[in-house]
Structure formats: C-alpha cells, structure tokens
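To fix ideas, we reproduce below one chain and its tokenised fold.
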Amino acid sequence: MKLLKTSLAAAVLALAAPRAAHAGANSSSFSVTATVAQNCTITTSPLAFGSYDPIVANAAAAQSLDATTSLSVACTKGASAVTIALDAGTSTNRTMKDTASTGTLSYQLYSDSARSSVWDATTTVSYAPTSKVATPFTVYGRVPGGQDAPVGSGYADTVKATVNF
C-alpha cells in the first residue's frame, strides 16, 4: 500500500509539473542576396542663344554669340566607365535651320567655359558617380560671328544627349 501511495503521489506530481515546450530543436541558416544594377538617367534643358545680329553685334568672326544650358546625370553609385555624349544634331555638322526659309546658322557645343574642348559623340565627358544624386553638367554653346544668315525667327536644331554606362 505504501508503494501504491508513493506511485500515486509521483504520478500526480508528474501530471502537475510544467511540461517542456519542445521536445527538441533543429536549425538551419539561409543566405540573403541582392544585386545592385548599374543604371543611369539623363535630363536636358533647352539651349537658347537669343538674337544673332549679323550686321553689328555679330558681324565679325570674333563677335560670337554665346549661351549655356545644363544637363543632369544620375547614376548608380560606383558605376564605371560612364561617359556623356552629344550628337551632331539633325545635320552632320551642328547647324540650326530656319523653319520658314533656307537659312542656316552654324554653332558648336563645348564642355569648358573657354569653349576650347568640343563636346560631341567622339569627345565625350567622363563621369564617376559617388552617389545616386543627379550631377549637373554645363553645356557651353557658341554661334560664331561673321555668318551671313537671312532673317528668321525659327532657327533650330535638336541635339541628342546620351549617357553611356
């Protein structure tokens, strides 16, 4: 009887005791990966030279008409071999054409304020992005003086700016 009482007491205590939440555990690890793509965008603004005066203000070759515009490039931080190119426009040599006449007006685009380094599809501007924030670039334009252009208010050309990466 004493054995029965002891066994019964042990059974009651075993039922009343808190049970372990887990009988066992195993674990495994997994890797988490991603790839950051090299990418760039480019935005441009118009270049407006204003009025060209072939009789007085721009009569001589040294009396050019200058103007500037800007473009912005945003690339993935650390993108490599980034270059910015400007094509020749709608003709093979940068020329604005008047929409109402056969008049033309030549111009050139440069990457420096001294207007000594032509910016085109061959002579590009290099860029090494240090963040994703857009970086502005100034485009320096020049219409050489001494051109014998007819009257017109629609002289225009379209230049394509390309960021290569």
Summary: Residues 2-16 form the longest helix (15 residues). The CA atoms of residues 99 and 154 lie 5 Å apart. The two ends are 91 Å apart (CA to CA). Helices lie at 2-16.
